[in-house]
Amino acid sequence: MDPFRKAFLDHAEIIMTKQPSKKSHLELLKLATAGLTSSDLNKPGVLRALKLRLHPDKHPQEKERATRLFQAVSHFCDACKNPSKKTSVDADVGQALPFQFHSQQDKWPHMSFTEPYYEESRFGNNIDGELDGQVATLVAYQCINARGAIAHGKSISIKFTSQQILQTEPSERHREVEVVFEDRGGYKVLETVPDIKQEIFSRGPVVSASFSFKRNDAYFFPNLKQFVTQKSLLIVGWKPTETGEAWLVQPLGRPDLKSVAAIPIGLHQFAIDDLCLAPVNSFEDTPWEPGPYLDLDLTQEVAQVWRNWKGIDYSLSVEASLELIK
Q1: Cα–Cα nearest to 98, from 59, 58, 69, 61
Q2: Alpha-carbon gap, residue 65 to 9, rounded angstroms
């Protein structure tokens, strides 16, 4: 498969699932015609150039996907000019998402879900199937770890581990997903299935904070018995099944395994998508590699001494630089 053609379809697909606007319109057209400005949006030929690049004949190895995008592109551009057409366009553009998708296997293979993990003997007793409140905290940090890897493009070496959570105050170990996300930049609520899919496809796993699976349910769904009363789950993708479409749910990691396979749970089943949350923070500015880091406030207002210290301005000649790297 030609990686450049695939990257082109990836970019177009992501843009066309954004909110139609002048900005997304320009971003899409620039894929085929670099250097466009907002005044060029209505120039004849720019949309045609994009459609030529999207034409299914140009993507024989991904013909079905290219066809969906080719059919949706004109509607999307119309919606960017006329927001009142948004509803009809959303249905067309929504089809541009993959038929099935696993965020780790299909897009970010460097992600890891092994930390933090739930270890019953250390985190509390599982009395009568009731998992204690620490699970919500663990799942929230499981999501943060995954998105940290996405932000930095590689497997992160510094993670939020189970041991770190265990060592915090009890009130810090038993927190809702919303509280953990709020403390680290805020969160957003994903209200529809297309919203959830688009968030997973574009930015990474999300957390279901409404899942409700009871002991009686486990009798009919033995493959889900590990989720009895667990009300927070990490959703990492979706897939078709014989009984309908399903979310792919990633269990909490285990210390004795490198990874645990994702488990399908049907859309809307057990209230899984009633309340889905995603962190607002991209974590691009969060250090995920070993230090040292200076935990100092060096802003203009606070650190005048540092700003005005002439000794920090030290010039190094080319000759001296070469001596240092010998």
Answers
A1: 69
A2: 8
Q: Are residues 68 and 109 in the same domain?
A: no
Let me know whether 156 and 112 are in one domain.
yes
Q: Are 120 and 255 contacting, i.e. CB atoms less than 8 angstroms apart?
A: no
Whole-Å CA distances, 28 to 69, 133, 233, 269: 12, 44, 34, 36
Same domain flag for 170 and 192: yes
Measured CA to CA, the distance from residue 215 to residue 94 in angstroms comes to: 36
* pTM greater than the 0.70 cutoff: no
For residues 7 and 125, membership in a common domain is answered with no
Q: Give CA–CA dist 180/303, Å, rounded.
A: 30
Our measurement of the distance from residue 256's CA atom to the centroid of its chain's CA atoms, rounded to an integer in Å, reads 26
Instruction: Tell me which residue has tokens 């001596």.
Output: 323
Q: Which of 96, 124, 145 is the last residue of a domain?
A: 96
Which structural domain, as residue segments, surrounds residue 30?
A: 3-96
Mapping DSSP onto H, E and C, the string for 207-234 reads EECCCCCCHHHHHHCHHHHHHCCCCCEE
pLDDT block averages, 10 residues each, the chain of length 326? 81 85 88 84 83 88 86 83 51 61 93 82 43 80 94 89 83 85 92 91 94 83 79 93 88 74 92 94 84 62 63 70 71
Residue 238: count of CB within 10 angstroms of its CB: 24
> Is 292 inside a domain boundary?
no
pLDDT of residue 33: 87
Is residue 271 assigned to a domain?
yes
Q: What one-character-per-residue DSSP string does 247-288 give?
A: EEEEPPB-TT-S----EEEETTGGGTTTSEEEES---TTS--
Question: Which CATH number does the domain housing residue 211 bear?
Answer: 3.90.70.10
Work out how many domains the chain is built from and give that number. 2
Q: Does 324 fall in a domain?
A: no
Please state, in angstroms and rounded to a whole number, the distance separating the CA atoms of residues 170 and 4: 50
